[in-house]
Amino acid sequence: MNTNNTDTNNNTLDMPENRQQRAATTDSLAMTTNSSIIDLSQLTALTTIYQKLMSGFHITENDLILWQSLDQHLTSYQVLFTGLGYNLVKDARGYFYFSTPDTSVTMTKTSRRIALFLYTLIEYWADQGYDPVAALFEQPISKDTLEKLFNHNTSVFEQIDINNAADIRNEIIKRMVRLGFAKEFGKEYKLLAPCYRYIDAVMELSDQFSASTDPLDDTSSDDSLLEDTNTDSTTEGNY
Prior knowledge:
The protein is built from 11 helices and 6 strands. The protein has 2 domains: 16-99, Orthogonal Bundle (Arc Repressor Mutant, subunit A); 109-211, Arc Repressor Mutant, subunit A (Orthogonal Bundle), CATH 1.10.10. Strands 1-2 form a two-stranded antiparallel ribbon. Strands 3-4 form a two-stranded antiparallel sheet. The protein has a two-stranded antiparallel ribbon with strand order 5-6. By secondary structure, the chain is an alpha+beta fold. The protein has helices at 16-19, 46-54, 64-72, 74-83, 109-127, 132-138, 143-152, 154-158, 165-178, 196-204, 206-211, and strands at 30-33, 36-39, 87-91, 95-99, 182-185, 188-191. Mean pLDDT is 78; it is low at 1-35, 218-224 and 226-239. It starts with 15 loop residues before the first helix and ends in a 28-residue tail after the last helix. It holds the Pfam family MksE. Residues 1-25, 213-239 are annotated as: Disordered.
């Protein structure tokens, strides 16, 4: 895991409203919030965690140092982030994220694409004779897998402006990697536990998917999925 790009020993949040109020760094800094004592000197990964969660990233055990810090000091992080207006969630299936209030009646473009991709992948693994949900996390996703997935669902993918297998990789899976939903292993990818956020919703949408020409119609989609906070839509290479 690479966290070298951020000073993980910076124990203050680099927020505009705080910049003029920050005092010089001390060896031990404590604060009282809602009657809970938060020793900021223990939250050595605070800045990195805050920046990642704010970007929409989901922290899993693949991000071991960050995950351990959150797990060991969960109450302190939750109290601190609640005071700043954020809701830190620890899902029992092994990941942390900021949940956001439902401010829209529609899914974002990225959310719709990820949900559709996961639904078609579940169907694909079921057709191959696997337990589909287990296979999502156990089976690697290769170039060949994506080509078969696109060929079997061309018209569906074209509805969300995905026109070939390379588009699935560049516009969906690589975005999932940037948000902590997947991990790259050479030329293959594996999905991570945060995908359960979508799987839960996808299962509820199953009947609608089969009956609708637009399986993730904006007017009836579950709006509880993450917001598309990553605005970088640059295509990152091709097969």
